[in-house]
Design a protein that fits this description.
CATH architecture of the largest domain: Roll
Shape: elongated
Mean pLDDT: 86
Strand content: 15-25%
Number of strands: 6
Helix content: 40-55%
Order of helices and strands: HEEHHHHHEHHEHEEH
Low-confidence stretches: 1-19
Distance between the termini: 43 Å
Structural class: alpha+beta
Number of helices: 10
Number of domains: 2
């Protein structure tokens, strides 16, 4: 697993750890040893439990390769050059800094109240775009009347026909159903509606009878997604916000208590 290379290169090459007595050895390359405790320490409990035997073998092979490179570098005295030594020092600082941040971040918790407050203040982040169609329809319960009504539609307006022939109270308003989305009407009807061209109509058979239906306007609208559905995403945002606040406050605190002087370069 080549992804291990970047994860462990700074530790394997830059830091020399003392071996504990009687600690089981996983692998040894010349005088360098990887003991079980060090091997296990590179993974969290959840990561370790997910590792297959193949993953562990890949990690060990990576460790062997890196150790061989490191030993050869020492033979050539490359690690003693100012350039390499500077990189080693920075790598060690990075590892220590990450350890500090991990320690601090481990104590961060997010409450239900904090998540809901964030959700209410940032609702635009948790919206979805919904396509809506403004629909008109005429309900005809008796199939024998359909040919006559369709013929009337050839000679008069849809609204007038709805008022005159529709078998539902909606007909009194010209059959205007208003704007509806995919979640507002039956899926089979929705598919036929969106397949229509604007102002074209179609007859659809349903349990209630026959709907002559068309759409006259189309729009995209953003609707709020309910909190329980986006709760996990909200938690990620709140956690990130808290991490950033912790980082900023930690930097301010450390700078306040440190003596820092910057010389001209």
């Amino acid at each position: 697993m080549k992804k291990f290379l970047l994860l462990f290169v700074s530790i394997l090459i830059l830091i020399s750890c003392k071996q504990e007595e009687n600690e089981p050895i996983v692998v040894q390359v010349n005088n360098d040893k990887l003991i079980t405790k060090e091997f296990r320490a590179h993974f969290s409990d959840s990561q370790w439990n997910k590792l297959s035997d193949s993953d562990k073998k890949d990690y060990i092979n990576d460790w062997i390769n890196l150790t061989l490179f490191s030993q050869e570098s020492d033979k050539l005295n490359l690690s003693t050059t100012p350039e390499v030594q500077s990189k080693i020092d920075n790598a060690i600082k990075n590892i220590k800094s990450n350890a500090l941040l991990s320690y601090k971040l481990a104590n961060i918790n997010v409450t239900e109240e904090e998540m809901f407050t964030y959700y209410k203040l940032n609702k635009k982040k948790f919206q979805k775009k919904v396509t809506e169609y403004k629909i008109q329809r005429i309900l005809i319960k008796d199939a024998t009347r359909l040919p006559f009504v369709r013929q009337e539609l050839e000679d008069t307006s849809f609204s007038r026909c709805a008022k005159k022939f529709s078998d539902e109270t909606l007909g009194k308003s010209g059959g205007n159903l208003g704007f509806v989305s995919q979640n507002d009407i039956d899926k089979s009807i929705w598919k036929q509606v969106i397949a229509l061209k604007k102002n074209h109509y179609k007859t659809i058979k349903t349990k209630k009878g026959y709907y002559i239906i068309k759409w006259i306007k189309k729009r995209d609208k953003y609707r709020d997604i309910d909190f329980p559905i986006v709760k996990k995403d909200v938690k990620k945002f709140v956690l990130q916000q808290k991490r950033e606040e912790l980082f900023d406050n930690l930097i301010k605190e450390l700078k306040k208590n440190a003596k820092i002087s910057i010389e001209k370069i």
